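Agenda item 2: magnesium ion complex prediction
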Amino acid sequence: DSALNPKTIRPGATIGMLGGGQLGRMFFLAAKQMGYHAVVLTDSEGSPAALVADSVIVGDYTPQNLEKLASQCDVVTLEFENIPDAAVQHLAKRVPTFPPASILRIAQDRHLEKRTLAEMPLPVTPFRTVEHPGSEAGIKELSEAAAAFGFPLILKTARSGYDGKGQKKVANQEELIAAANEFGNERIVAEKMIAFEREVSVLVARNQQGETAVYPLIENQHRNHILAISHSPAAASPEIEKAAVQIAETVAKKLDLVGILCVELFEVPGEGLIINEIAPRPHNSGHLTIEGSSTSQFEQHVRAVCGLPLGDTSPRCPAAMFNLLGDLWGDDGSDPPFEQALTVPGVSLHLYGKTEARPGRKMGHLTAVGKTVEEALRRVYEAYELLV
Ligand code: ADP
Ligand code: MG
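Presented output:
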C-alpha cells in the first residue's frame, strides 16, 4: 500500500527483543495488546520477557542466534543498553533495529555519555575520568578531583553499572585510596556529589519519522542507590518542566533516537537541572505511566520503533509507584501477602515472573493512582506497608 509510510511496521508483524528482563516483558504485553507477535533472544527460557513471548531463542548474542532472530522479525529493539554494539550493528544489517548502536555505545560508557551530553551542550555532573585508578598517576588524578569537587566524591565504573552497582562514595583521602586500589585498572569516573533538592526523570520518545513526544516530569526517591519510589506529576516549577522538555528533545534529536529514552536528572537549587545519566529504553521510573498516562512508556516504545504515530503523553491521573525488591520475600522463597496490598483502593500489582528472590532484585512493583499526588503516594505507601 503506497499510501503507507514504507517504514511503518503494522500490527500483525513480529517484533524482536534483545534481553529478557521485566522491561522486555512489559514491552511485549503492550505490543501483544496491539496485535504484534513477540520474539525474544535471552539467556533463559524462564526470563520475564520469555514467559510472555510467542517465541524464545535461548542463548548469547552469537552471529547464529542474531541471524535466527533477524529471520523471524520485522523489527528488533532492546530493553537493556549493555548489549555489545557489534551485535546490534550486525542485526541492523539484516532487519530494522532500534535504537541505533551509536546510542548504545554512548549510554554504555559514563565517560563518553557525559562528554557527548556536555558537547550538546547540556549540563552534566562535574566529573573527571581516570583510566587506571589504582596506579600512582590515577591516585594523583583522583586527589585532584577531590580537591576540585570536595568530599564526598562518587566513583563509578565507566562501564556496565546499574542499580548502584560499581559505585563507591568516598568521604576522605584514606577511603579514596582504598577504593582506587579496589578499582585497580578499571576505568572510572569521579563525580562531584550533587546536593540536589530532588531527583526527577523525563521520558522522551522519537519515532522513525522523527516526531518526538515528551512525558511530564517524574519525581524519584532512591534507597541504597536503587530506585524505590516514583510519582508523577513531580513538584516542579513550569520553568523546570520547560527545561526538562528542552533537554529531552535535544538528546533525542542529537542522538538520532528511535524508541524511548529516559533522562535521569538532579534538580539543584539555584542551578536548575543537571543530567545524571541517560537510558535508551523504557525506565523503571516510567512504570507508573501504565496506569497514570494516556499512553504507557511501553506502548510508546512500540509505536516509536514501528513508525506509528506517537501517543498522547498527558497524565490520566496522578500516580505513584513503589518497587518490590527481593528483600520482601522470605528466606524460604515465600512471597509477601499481595492480597493485603490489593485491599487499598487505586492500587495495581505488577509481578515480573521471577522465581528467585534476592536482596535488591526487582521482583515487581505497586502502582497507586489517586485524585492528587498526595493521595496516590499515601495509597502506595499504605499498600507497601501491608507487604512488609
Ligand atoms: P545507576 O546506573 O546504577 O542507576 P546512577 O549514576 O544513576 O547509577 O546512580 C544511582 C543513584 O545514586 C542516583 O539516582 C542518585 O540517587 C545517586 N547518585 C549517583 N551519582 C550521584 C551524584 N553525583 N550526586 C548525588 N547523588 C548521586
Ligand atoms: Mg541511574
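Discussion summary: Residues 264, 277 surround magnesium ion (ligand 2) (CB under 6 Å).
Owner for follow-up: CH.
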